[in-house]
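quick q for whoever's on today - can somebody do inverse folding on this one?? i tried earlier but teh output was garbage lol. tokens:
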């Protein structure tokens, strides 16, 4: 008899995001393993109906979430499952009236502010949810410890393409919502001030018209990968640290060399393979780009590609299975 895993998150699956990406990947991977079965319970998924979604500002980003799932659908989904695996537990724990007689795993993705941490620690006092806690990076640990005394580090994952090689395309790529911390403004400034024979491409969430930049508004996964593979250098320009730089891994896995701001999340992923510039400094960014020599780019990319092997889903799924077996 299969062990049934229900993957739960409040984030809408009509909108691209790192958590949704990880839930999808985990769901696909679990369903390939004998004696395991997985389904997703989240807004805008196929298996279970949900509530209407709303947009909220959380942690300097706008997210589309569901606060109140249909109660009958929730109970039906939870009755089906042997293990409930919640990704970003804050909203489910406080709004979803979770049954107490279930086995729970919670995975913390966000690197949240101190104000939110204090607020969450206060609220968690009134919630008694027995669970096993995990976090995707050291930057998400403080979030995890607001709910549990102990938490296990299990990084985000990607399905590595072993056949990938460096893209010999002379283009810079930006990926991110049009939000201050994603720093599209710096990419625009670079396109207007840096004299080079590189083209500029941007994947974002709005239909923008920007001089010198080809803007792609919310492409699907296949279109997104095609854009990545037509780009040579991905510029990770965030001004504030996320808990995990998943777009960095995606870019490298699609043949892009990554140049990143010197934030802790980037350094956690890339370590010594990173090519860093001073956070939000156009002068530092231009200096780093000027120092890149064409003949060295494939070697630099290969070093980064070797670095991300530790995030291969084949390795990460084993870590989750060891926890599922614990129940």
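ok took a stab at it. sequence:
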């Amino acid at each position: 008899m299969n062990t049934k895993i229900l993957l739960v998150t409040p984030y809408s699956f009509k909108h691209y995001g790192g958590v949704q990406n990880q839930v999808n990947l985990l769901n696909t991977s679990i369903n390939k393993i004998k004696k395991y079965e997985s389904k997703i319970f989240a807004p805008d998924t196929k298996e279970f109906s949900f509530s209407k979604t709303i947009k909220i500002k959380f942690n300097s980003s706008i997210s589309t979430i569901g606060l109140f799932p249909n109660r009958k659908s929730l109970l039906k989904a939870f009755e089906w499952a042997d293990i409930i695996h919640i990704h970003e537990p804050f909203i489910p724990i406080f709004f979803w009236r979770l049954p107490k007689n279930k086995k729970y795993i919670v995975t913390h993705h966000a690197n949240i502010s101190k104000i939110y941490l204090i607020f969450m620690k206060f609220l968690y006092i009134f919630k008694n949810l027995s669970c096993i806690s995990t976090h995707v990076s050291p930057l998400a640990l403080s979030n995890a410890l607001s709910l549990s005394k102990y938490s296990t580090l299990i990084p985000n994952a990607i399905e590595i393409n072993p056949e990938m090689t460096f893209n010999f395309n002379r283009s810079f790529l930006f990926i991110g919502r049009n939000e201050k911390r994603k720093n599209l403004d710096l990419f625009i400034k670079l396109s207007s001030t840096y004299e080079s024979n590189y083209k500029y491409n941007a994947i974002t969430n709005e239909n923008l018209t920007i001089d010198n930049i080809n803007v792609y508004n919310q492409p699907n996964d296949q279109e997104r990968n095609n854009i990545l593979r037509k780009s040579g250098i991905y510029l990770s320009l965030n001004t504030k640290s996320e808990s995990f730089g998943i777009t960095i891994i995606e870019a490298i896995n699609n043949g892009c060399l990554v140049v990143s701001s010197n934030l802790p999340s980037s350094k956690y992923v890339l370590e010594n393979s990173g090519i860093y510039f001073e956070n939000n400094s156009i002068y530092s960014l231009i200096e780093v780009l000027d120092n890149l020599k064409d003949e060295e780019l494939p070697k630099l990319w290969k070093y980064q590609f070797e670095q991300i092997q530790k995030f291969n889903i084949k390795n990460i799924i084993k870590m989750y299975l060891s926890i599922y077996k614990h129940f």
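fwiw The two ends are 15 Å apart (CA to CA). also DSSP finds twelve helices and 14 strands in the chain. so keep that in mind when u check it
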